[in-house]
Amino acid sequence: MEDTTLSPEQEMSKVDTESPDTEAADTAAEVAGGAHLLGFSDEILLHILSHVPSTDLVVNVRHVCRKLAALSLDKSLVHSVLLQKDYQASEDKVKQLVRVIGREIQQLSMAGCYWLSGATIEHVARCRGLVKVNLSGCHLTSLRLSKVLSALQQLRSLAIDVSPGFDASQLSSECRATLSRVRELKQTLFTPSYGVVPCCASLQKLLLYFEILDRTREGAVLSGQLMVGQSNVPHYQNLRVFYARLAPGYINQEVVRLYLAVLSDRTPENLHAFLISVPGSFAESGATKNLLESMARNVALDALQLPKSWLNGSSLLQHMKFNNPFYFSFSRCTLSGGHLIQRVINGGKDLRSLASLNLSGCVHCLSPDSLLRKAEDDIDSSILETLVASCCNLRHLNLSAAHHHSSEGLGRHLCHLLARLRHLRSLSLPVCSVADSAPLADRVPAQPAMHAVPRGFGKKVRIGVQTCPGPFAGHQPSSAFWSLLKNLPFLEHLELIGSNFSSAMPRNEPAIRNSLPPCSRAQNVGDSEVAAVSQLAFLRHLTLAQLPGILTGSGLVSIGLQCQQLQSLSLANLGMMGKVVYMPALSDMLKHCRRLRDLSFQAERPALNVVIFPLLHEGLTDVIRDVPMVHLDEITLFKSRVAEEPPNLWW
After folding, report:
1. Is there a contact between 361 and 280 (Cβ–Cβ < 8 Å)?
2. Domain-by-domain residue ranges, the chain?
3. 87-98 pLDDT, tens per residue?
4. Residue 156 and residue 180: Cα distance in Å, rounded?
């Protein structure tokens, strides 16, 4: 392939010849003076341009004038290129991007660019200085992958898909030489295969995503025996991080056992993170038992996540050694509060290094050792107090999918204790845990916010008199939940999910057909508590699921007005079952969410007809003009994502 990539100096001279109006643009800028955009300093302009898609910088901005041409090709802007979710990046734009700045790109993410052809992906080979590249979700055959990697001699980090038809024997010697230097590999498997793992002799971080279907399109049953005869000697001696996430299905468990069998023979001495995420049950085998015993003897971990069937009833945690742990996940485990304090926190040991803790579905983790606890029983606040004191630097905490009811008493409410975790950036809580102990009848009903519901034939509005309530009008800033969010002003990700909520078809969990009614205490959480979220000025991701106490939805309007950084919104089963009375409020909210990129919605089928279609016609008409991507998904996106993976696991 002929390399026609131009240097920045050549591109600058080309701008002069291609842009006859360059001098006129410069003159106009000088006339406008400091009031013109170009009157800003280079540092400010570079910061502004950093928010412009790379394809726009190369295709459009650099042709405006000499100054913007120089700034658009600045190394700080072309060093890292993100094309993921850039749906306006056509094949011609991507080819031009590579031709102009290919030599300067060191990090490139084309994850999920399914609309680009394999021939366009091949142009990545011209970016010879690439150190990190993500090609997950791209159309790549074994031969094309070989051609691309053969040219990337500086590559150290790679993400690819392994699809049916992949053949490692088609990889050239130059490609294998590149893979031998790769230190980080993210591999998504759609077919039983070792992929390129056996070629990566210097692996330090291995991330495996198993998405293999049990049957082919023709109906044939797949088996891990298809891997027999493939090279099965992965190089794990330098491995520091091993992560495997499995989609439901027996074949995924069968294939991951083959990967783990190599680890069980010789556990890497430098292993410090071992994480396996499995939906449902995953029985231990002789090889996995040997692996865990070897890890307990030979390594000190910093991050741990194991299938619940490996931990339930096991004394494994007593024997594991931890160095400076930063991530623990015990999702769905029968871990009692006593075991949490004794085995994990080691009786109140200082765990300031712990940044992320996932206790989702651990129904007994905040209660004493008795497993006879009922859902309506209160938590033991002393356990939570010990947890908060020991893990004072937590940034990500997940307590969802459990009933965590607080007892009466000053300072003993779960929200008051969590308010001490001032470093939190993401938090997931069950709805019933934020409810105050006061019964529903004693609460003052929330007043609707502006335009939340029709005014009807009430008293006419006098012109010139302020009648619009403020964002907190009619709500209760004295509640425990208000106090919690007031003390966590920098929270970016918040989830309030009913303890009995289950998605119709969750992404990586077994489907649950028999849904349970909401917790009785969740009835006490309504519009007032939702309005409390509007205190979070830096909020980017919000999930609200199974809140039966929602009446008018006035709190949603407050969030739309105050949370201007909101990018992702997921709503499920708000209000009473089968009743949708908050559509006007939701419509008003979305008109204010100018940065919203992802919108997810789930409700019963009648509610979908009442809400979604009118919303598409009226509520989102103005929003879609400014929102790059609005995604309506009925069933797949409702799962707690807080602390689901270790922070900074992958670029």
Report:
1. no
2. 389-434+480-650
3. 889 999 999 999
4. 9
